[in-house]
Amino acid sequence: DAGITQSPRYKITETGRQVTLMCHQTWSHSYMFWYRQDLGHGLRLIYYSAAADITDKGEVPDGYVVSRSKTENFPLTLESATRSQTSVYFCASRGTGSSTDTQYFGPGTRLTVL
Amino acid sequence: GEDVEQSLFLSVREGDSSVINCTYTDSSSTYLYWYKQEPGAGLQLLTYIFSNMDMKQDQRLTVLLNKKDKHLSLRIADTQTGDSAIYFCAETHEFSGGYNKLIFGAGTRLAVHP
Known about the structure:
- The complex is a heterodimer.
- Chain A is mainly beta.
- Chain A has strands at residues 4-7, 10-13, 19-25, 31-38, 42-51, 54-57, 64-66, 76-78, 87-94, 104-105, 109-113.
- In chain A, the strands form 2 sheets. In chain A, strands 2, 4, 5, 6, 9, 10 and 11 form a 7-stranded mixed sheet that branches. In chain A, strands 1-3-8-7 form a 4-stranded antiparallel sheet, with no helix packed on it.
- Chain B has strands at residues 5-6, 9-13, 18-23, 31-37, 43-50, 55-58, 61-66, 71-76, 85-94, 100-104, 108-113.
């Protein structure tokens, strides 16, 4: 499928477990992003990547790890999940050819940490 | 600092106009954006305005920008039930490495009733 996809769409896990959320885009966009959405906070940037093998922290990176070995994939790992990481996670991508900073979002992953 | 503020909730009658307001802080933002999030979905770009414009119209949507007051608004004419969603205002903010990140407001939930 063309576009940006996330998996799983829903995940329930327990405190202390490792969880990986997947993100895949078919546009060969250079930039990819991970956000979390929490009530009253809007979207907060966790990590972003400017290209394969280039990643950098966003506003709320603690407790998360990312990698980008291929342009099209940008997995987000919670190394030891905590209840405060219960959230909806969105992946987004952006090309470099546009004059705007428009980002294209995936459908989200709802993560619950018990 | 970086802060985008929106009211959290707006209720309108079907057929009326909706006006969603936003204030932002970064006067150097080149573009300002409105994203729409329907239930269970990711964010979709609705429209954007270049910072040297005062107004942009796109079918039922009108965006007004007051740079002096750092105020952005989105007007939806003839609001329909399908417009019920969360609307996010976003500004660009210069980040490291030449990348401009998006700063999102908390979102305004628009409820359209008969």
